[in-house]
């Protein structure tokens, strides 16, 4: 019998994430704890990405970084947020930076729309 392995990654406590307002953004006082939790979750999920860089590899080479979350947030929310809200939530000083994410999301949406999905699979989710 195949049992699922439950891995406890440890709860985050309020002291792990000390925030303070800084202008229009937020500064994370203790980002090391945040990184540790993030990497621990990925190890528990057995995420091991290939590293294509030519250097001495470390465990951080094989997990997602925060930029991937940042990019996913932008990609999934470009159609849901206003042109003013998205750059503010992403902490971009220049709208041109946010515009690149918006353009990428639109290209992905167009590509997904053009994918062939067999009739058998349409409507089978949910």
């Amino acid at each position: 019998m195949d049992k699922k392995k439950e891995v406890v990654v440890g709860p985050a406590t309020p002291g792990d994430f000390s925030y303070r307002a800084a202008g229009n953004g937020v500064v994370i006082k203790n980002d090391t704890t945040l990184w540790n939790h993030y990497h621990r979750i990925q190890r528990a999920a057995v995420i091991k990405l290939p590293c294509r860089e030519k250097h001495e590899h470390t465990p951080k080479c094989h997990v997602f970084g925060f930029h991937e979350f940042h990019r996913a947030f932008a990609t999934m929310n470009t159609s849901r947020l206003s042109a003013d809200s998205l750059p503010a939530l992403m902490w971009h000083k220049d709208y041109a930076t946010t515009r690149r994410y918006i353009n990428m999301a639109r290209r992905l949406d167009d590509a997904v729309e053009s994918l062939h999905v067999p009739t058998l699979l349409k409507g089978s989710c949910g």
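Strands lie at 19-22, 25-28. The CA atoms of residues 51 and 58 lie 10 Å apart.
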